[in-house]
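Example 253.
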Amino acid sequence: MIRLGIVGCGKVTTMFHLKAIGEVDEVTVAAVADLDKARMEDVKRKSGAERGYTDPKELLSDPSVEVVAINTPPRFHEETVIEALRAGKHVLCEKPLAQSVEGCARIKEAQGGSGLVVLPVHNYAFTPCLETARGIVVSGEIGKIQRIGLRFDNNLWSYGPKTDFRMKEEFSIVEDLLPHVLSVVQAFTGPVRSVEEARGRRKRHDVMDDLSLVMETEDGVRVEGSMNWTSLIPAFKASVEGESGRLEMDLMK
Ligand SMILES: NC(=O)c1ccc[n+]([C@@H]2O[C@H](COP(=O)([O-])OP(=O)(O)OC[C@H]3O[C@@H](n4cnc5c(N)ncnc54)[C@H](O)[C@@H]3O)[C@@H](O)[C@H]2O)c1
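Predicted structure in complex with nicotinamide-adenine-dinucleotide:
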């Protein structure tokens, strides 16, 4: 049995993580932590955890915890991942793993040689239809990839986060939805190396809530990505165009 500790007891924990954990027999929640006592107590009760902390450092030094899920706002990810690794824990970290490339490199350095796993939550990379599409691309059926189109429609209001960390202009939709888009690109081709065009707008929030990007990967594939927080019906649609065929998928199905 894997003994998990959860740091951050907000919406992603109650809406997604607890549901997924409930479907896996091999995982039990040993401890939870949140700066907010009421949210911590709520998730402790729902998960059946034995211990709850309002100081995440206490969870990281709890010897009964083997793996830590870091579900806090992004600005705490880097330091919490590194502290968890130093405490000898495996890590599952919500996206984005860190707020800078340098932050990711510091995590890599802290992990180096430890034998501990650090898994960023790029959940769409594990969607069954994406696995199927990747198999088709690898088989050569649609030929060399020319273009990838991605559209992430979300509705922040109906999602209902517990805190307002997304309302910072410098991060906004960029750190919220772009990591998902990039993780899907990398399932098919090399990483994005340049942004050719960018157009951001504030439609219903005080920060950028609608973003379109034209990018190019290091393999020369053109990527057209758009994402927003203002759609009525959430969907994450992807199309992969090759020299001799095209694949379409909805990664939320
Ligand atoms: N993979 C996905 O599809 C997906 C979906 C939604 C959110 N997320 C990610 O999950 C993370 C959390 O988002 P959310 O929507 O749950 O936010 P939220 O505002 O609903 O919850 C954040 C929680 O973290 C707590 N917190 C803040 N600082 C803390 C700290 N230092 N230590 C412990 N707890 C702390 C807050 O009190 C709050 O309960 C973000 O990184 C977000 O990008 C991922």
